[in-house]
TrEMBL record:
This is Uncharacterized protein. Coiled coil: none annotated. Transmembrane segments: none annotated. Keywords: Glycosyltransferase, Transferase. PANTHER family: STEROL 3-BETA-GLUCOSYLTRANSFERASE, STEROL 3-BETA-GLUCOSYLTRANSFERASE UGT80A2.
Length: 381
């Protein structure tokens, strides 16, 4: 059977789809994963055949409407227009990807198409080929505005296919553990999260505990924005008082600046799945996969969600008792220091984090869900 996985524009999209894609290959199926040209090395690094679905640089896709107009990007991530803008450029990714994926399907026709939450090309290609479309999610994202923005940008493709909007999937797969899944979420096939990410050579300190508590601080945009270095420095000071070791997984260009500005830290591209079992606490931007990797290891979390679309998921983990969630207007050096101390000293957070880890362990494995995909494709032939 041929299975086409369509990843979204970030590396985390490839990481999220990789466990199921890898399991499908292990079961003997032919698997391709498409992504933006700049992300093909990420997919190939995971050991999967990578299709470059775009030729336009990501920066240009983000900056220019299909009409040729320049995008005006709101500075405020809470502004309603920001999530619409996000949807528009996701729509442009889908429109360009669809052209390339049609060419791929002409010579390699998939039996089922599996796409990330905003990989809209997956839905349109599957509709055109009359094969099942599977939507694969991994966090309780606020997607309403994104969908609207994407459909507006995809209006020519939708009209050509006789559609009023992006069609509903034939199957929804979700790896969010039940205890922190949004009560209003659509019914879904559960999938156990298995951490897969880009690797570096493993060093002994990464997988062994030292004498001090270890705290991981990570988060993509949080680490990359200059105005957040002061926040990271305040964390370093707070954790020094608590006699904690600080490890910051980050791209090397960011890590180098962090090492220059913060004494006594470890920073670099550190495989999170290797590091996490040695940690006592993680501070991050409420990324769904980062959070689930912490849950598997029973590690409490300090969540600092910046984007509005992830805040519901962050609050659900906090309500469960496995995290403290601070919104942008609540983040101060004092509030962060208090939260860090509470999470380290109150064992209830550790207990609830371990409970989430047990929930994940009980969810269906990727190989089991491959069987569900096989049945779906067989029924619809």
């Amino acid at each position: 059977m041929k299975m086409l996985f369509v990843a979204g524009p970030t590396p985390s999209n490839a990481f999220a789809l990789a466990p199921l894609a890898t399991a499908a290959r292990d079961e003997g199926h032919q698997v391709f994963m498409s992504t933006l040209k700049e992300r093909t090395s990420v997919v190939a690094g995971l050991g999967l055949p990578a299709i470059a679905a775009t030729t336009t640089p990501i920066a240009d896709i983000k900056a220019t409407r299909r009409s040729g107009e320049r995008e005006i990007v709101p500075d405020d991530v809470d502004h309603p227009e920001f999530i619409q803008y996000t949807g528009r450029w996701f729509g442009r990714v889908a429109a360009e990807s669809l052209v390339q994926l049609r060419e791929v399907a002409a010579g390699w026709r998939p039996d089922v198409v599996i796409g990330g939450p905003h990989a809209y090309a997956a839905a349109l290609l599957a509709h055109e080929l009359s094969v099942p479309w599977v939507r694969h999610t991994w966090a309780a994202l606020d997607t309403v505005g994104i969908h609207v923005g994407s459909e507006g940008e995809l209006e020519p493709e939708l009209r050509q296919l006789g559609l009023d909007g992006v069609p509903q999937p034939d199957l929804l797969i979700d790896n969010c553990p039940p205890g922190v899944r949004w009560a209003g979420a659509a019914p879904a096939q559960q999938l156990r999260w298995v951490p897969i990410n880009s690797q570096n050579p493993v060093e002994p300190w990464m997988y062994t505990r030292g004498e001090r508590r270890r705290v991981c601080v990570t988060g993509g945009s949080m680490a990359a924005r200059d105005n957040n270095f002061e926040l990271i420095r305040s964390m370093v000071d707070s954790l020094a008082v608590l006699d904690a070791e600080i490890v910051i997984p980050a791209p090397e260009e960011v890590a180098a600046e962090l090492r220059n500005q913060c004494d006594g830290i470890r920073a670099g591209w550190i495989p999170l799945d290797v590091l996490m079992p040695t940690c006592d606490l993680i501070v991050h931007h409420a990324g769904g996969l980062t959070g689930q990797t912490a849950m598997i290891s029973g590690v409490p979390q300090l969540l600092l969600p910046q984007e509005k679309k992830v805040r519901r998921a962050a609050q659900l983990v906090a309500d469960y008792g496995a995290a403290i969630n601070l919104l942008p207007d609540e983040v101060t050096p004092d509030s962060v220091a208090k939260a860090l101390q509470t999470l380290i000293e109150d064992s209830a957070y550790k207990d609830r984090s371990q409970a989430l880890g047990r929930e994940i362990a009980a969810m269906p494995s990727p190989s089991e869900v491959v069987g569900v995909l096989e049945d779906l494709a067989t029924r619809t032939r």
